[in-house]
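USER:
Try writing one entry.

ASSISTANT:
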Amino acid sequence: SVSQFWSREGFTRYGADEWGDQLQGPLDEASVVVLGRAPIGSAPDSWVEALAKATEREDLGWLALPGSEMDLDRFEDSSLANLLEREGNRKESRESIRILFAEQGKDHPALAPLWSYQDGVWEIGSDSYFRVIMPTMQVLLTDPQDRGLVVQVPFGLGKATLVSTSNLWKLRSFAGWDVRGDREAGFLSGLWLGILDDLSGRERSQEIRLTLDPEKPTVGQSTRIQVEDPSLTPGQPRGGLEIRETQSEWETLLVSPDPEWSGIGEAVWTPRSSGEYEIRYASGENPLAVTVTDRPSESEDLSLNEETLQEIAETSGGAYSRLAEVDPAAIDLKPTTHVIERTDKTPLRHDLWLGILVAGLFCMGWGLRRAWSLP
């Protein structure tokens, strides 16, 4: 599925400030490492050791972006040093770079967000390219001058992808989440760990996947249905998604493809009644079973709201209580009423009064001066 290639929710940026020397755990769970600009910075040496050891895994993919070579000296005794040295062997182009998909780059998982562009040529402005293409490098993206822009190389027991262009990786498609506040951020800087496993060079999956948000909808609740289908490309909404209450007729929902990502789309469904439903895509034989429940009662809604209000109050140093449970003597709710009498006069603005006063003083001064000048 596309989520196994690139997913904004699937990547998280890790920094020494938040994680200290606790990198080994997340790294063991990761399936791809993205080395952005100055990926480890002032992180402890334990990070260097953990990343160096991770190069021995054959199921781990690596992606090096421009600027990752800034930490080359931190990895001088590791095979990562050789990888970052190759990444730093770039040259700036004086003219705007035009991008072409090399034959080996078509459908390559590292370029999944660009699959819909593989039949065309587009410009990304002035950028850089790799000076030398070694025989062991597999070119994925090139230009009309056959210069290497994105290449894949053998690395450790797996493979690594080297990127020379910065502008290409500014696309929103290449993004993840910052651990500091779940803010979406680009891959161009820092160290990123991803939960996908296809950058190691595996075959592109043709699996179709449906996911719901929320997973357990209620009556009248707007529900997002995400469709992951490698054949989806950015464009107009299309059919193919069907939904029905068990033993009823199928109804068609339109799927809106993601405007930037290839292989992903979304539909919105609002259930009108509770019960058991089935959702299928492209007339699939194994529909997704969904249970729709009635909306919670007002008392349940109130309890949910109370939990939220109590959390907000405690976070801000206060306390939350129901109004009915508070001693009336402790409540200071004495609203005062201020009556503004209406008149037929139109109030003048302060700056207008000031102007009139200045004009009056000027006239008075001019008059006195004239009086003193009389014989």
Remarks:
- The chain has a mean pLDDT of 77.
- The CA atoms of residues 62 and 222 lie 39 Å apart.
